[in-house]
Amino acid sequence: MSRLTVGRAGALLRARLLHRPVRAPSSTRLSPLPGRRALSTISVQSLRDDDVCILSFARTPIGSFGGKLSHLSAVRLGALAIQAAVARAARLERESITDCFMGHVLQAGCGQAPARQAALLAALPDSVRCTTVNKVCASGMKAVAMAVDALRLGHADVVVAGGMESMSNAPFYLIEEWPTGGGGGRKPRQRRRLGNRTLIDGLLHDGLLSPASVASIGAAQLEEQVHMGVFADRLAASMGILREEQDNFAVHSYSRAAKATAQELFAKEIVAVEMPADAEERSSNSSSSSSSSEERTLFAAREHGRNASGAGGDSGGLSSPEHVPLMKSDEELERLTLIDRLPLLPPVFAPATTAAAATKDAHGADHAATGGGTITAGNASKISDGAAALVLASGRAVKRNNLIPLARVLSHADAEQSPSHFATSPALALPLALRRANLTLSDMDYIEINEAFACVPIMVMKVLAAAHAAETGMVGATASGALPRRLQAAAGSSDGSHANTANTATTTSAAHAPPPGGVPEALSSQHINAWGGAVALGHPLGCSGARILVTLTNILRSRTAHYGAAAICNGGGGASAMVMERLDLDAR
Questions:
Q1: Each residue's pLDDT tens digit, 540-587
Q2: What is the per-residue pLDDT for 193?
Q3: Distance (Å, rounded) from C-alpha 96 to C-alpha 280?
Q4: What's the domain count of the chain?
Q5: Do 43 and 586 touch, CB atoms closer than 8 A?
C-alpha cells in the first residue's frame, strides 16, 4: 500500500471518528470557482443520523430605522420569519418541531420570553421548547449554532432558529443614578418626589456600547462603555485602512445589493410583509401606526400558520388581500442617493474613549465636531428592523420523514479577544470553524462577513490573506504589526490558535492593497458578500447573524456552488462563524 493510500485511509478513519467531512487530496481537489465544480448528488439514506441539514430559510425585508417595519415589534417580526420558514420546508409537519432558538438583543420592553412569544405567534405547537439568545450582533448565528448542537447531540429532531430585532422600538430607560467610577451605583427603584430624571438610550446602551478591558481604556474608566465604532475606527487606522478604501467597499455593497434586488435574487429569502395604510408616511417621518394594523398583520400570519399545508410558496405562505400593500424588498436600498455623497460625509467618531464622548449615532445623526476618523454614516451599517429564520433537522429526522435538505451545516466556532479588537475577531472564528470542518479557505466558494462597518470585512480579509501567505511561505504581504498577539499568531496558524509570532507577516506599504497573487479565490472580492451586506441592507442586531446564513444558503443554491462560510463579529471582542455545504439529492 502506497504512502498516499495509507494517509488517505488514516484521514477517512479520523473523519469518521470526529464526524468530519473528508477533503480530497490537493492534487485532485476541485476548483472552488463557481461553475467549475461538478456537484455530486447524494441519497437521503446516505446521511448520518447526526448530520445537521437546513430544510428551508426565510427573512423579512430589512426596514430602515423608524421606517416601514417600525410598527412591528421584534417578536412579531420574528413570528413572520418563523412562519414563512416553516411553510417553505417541504414535507415538514409542524408537529415534528421540537425547539426554537431566536437571537434578540434589545429585549427591554418586549415582554417575557421573546423567543417563546415569536414561536406562539407563528403558530408553532405549544410543546416547542424556546430559548432567547443574546450574543449581541452574533445572536442570530449563535442561536443557529445552539440548534446545530442540539440536533447533533440527539436532543432534538427538527428545530427553528434565527434572530429578530426592532431597533426602531428600543426604549429609553430612567436611571436615578448613573455610575461614574468604581464607587458609583444604580438606584432605579429609589423614590424621588421632585426633580428631573435622566434618560438612557436603550439602543445605544444595550446594543452599540461595548464593554472595555483595562488594556483598552485604563482601570479608572473600566465601567464606562465605548462605542463599537470608536474601537473599529482606531483599529482601521492602526492597520492602515484608508477612508477611500472603506467608501469604495460601501459602493460595492450598495451596487451588489441593488443588482441582486433588481434580479429578484432575494425573492427566495424574503417573505412579503403587510404594510399599514400609512407606511409611506412612516418611512419619511417615523410616525407610529395604529395597533389595529399590527394586530391584523400577525392575526393573518397566525391564521395562515394554522391552515398551512407545509408546501410553501414564493411568499412563504403569507397571504394578504390584493388591496393591502406589501413590503417585498429591503427599504434601505431606496436611499441609493447616499452613494453620491459618500466622499462628503464627515466622520462620525471622535478619538474619544468614553461613552459620554461617543454617544452620537453611528449612522447619521449629528455629525458636528466629531472629526478625526474614517467611519461615516455611509460606510457603516444602518440601524434597522428585521428577522430571519431557518428550519434545521437531523439526518435521522430527514431519513425518517423523507424531508428534502438544501444544505448541511459542517461546523461552527466562536472566538474572543480584547473588546477593542472585536472587528477582527471573525479572522479567529472562521479559521477555527474551517479546521473543525476539515476544510480550508481554498475550498470555499462564497463567504459572508457581516458588514458592521465597511472596515470589518476589509480587515478580516487582510488578516486571512496574511494567514494564507504565512502558510504558503508568502510572508510579508498583508498582516499588521498593530494586531494583538493572538491575531498575529493566526497569521501563522490555520486554526487561530497561538503560534510562534516570529514568522508573522508584518505591515508593508501595500497594507490596503487587494490580496496578493496566490491567495485563495474565496478571498477575492467577488466571493465576499456577493450580494452586498449590512452597509447597504441594514444591520438589525439580533437578526444579522441568521440573515447572512439565509443569504449564504440562497447563494449556494442559486450559484450552483458547493461550500460556503459565514462570520460575524460582536461587541465585547467576540465573533461566530459557520461552515456549510450545499446538498443535492439523487432523484432515484
A1: 999 999 999 999 999 999 998 999 999 999 999 999 999 999 999 865
A2: 66
A3: 40
A4: 1
A5: yes
Alpha helix stretches (DSSP H) within 451-578: 455-471, 485-490, 534-537, 541-558
Specify the DSSP class assigned to residue 270.
Answer: B
Catalytic positions are 137, 539, 569
Provide the grid cell at 11. Answer: 484521514
In a domain, 30, yes or no: no
CA–centroid distance for 73 within its chain: 20
CA dihedral 309, 314, 320, 326 (to 10 degrees): 150
Angle at 577 between CA 575 and CA 580, to 5 degrees: 170
Q: What is the value of pTM for the model shown?
A: 0.80
Q: What is the rounded distance in angstroms from the CA atom of residue 522 to the CA atom of residue 64?
A: 31
In a domain, 174, yes or no: no
**Residue given cell 430602515 in the structure block:** 64
Q: Which pLDDT belongs to residue 304?
A: 40
- Tally Cβ neighbours within 10 Å of residue 13: 11
Q: Which domain holds residue 539?
A: 45-169+247-331+383-582
* CATH number, domain containing residue 517: 3.40.47.10
How far from the centroid of its chain's Cα atoms is residue 485's Cα?
A: 26
282 belongs to a structural domain: yes
> Is 442 domain-assigned?
yes
* pLDDT for position 7: 44
Low-confidence ranges of the chain (pLDDT < 70): 1-40, 176-193, 213-224, 278-323, 337, 350-371, 473-524, 586-588
Q: Locate 490 and state its grid cell.
A: 493566526
Q: What is the Cβ-side half-sphere exposure of residue 554, based on CA atoms within 13 angstroms?
A: 25
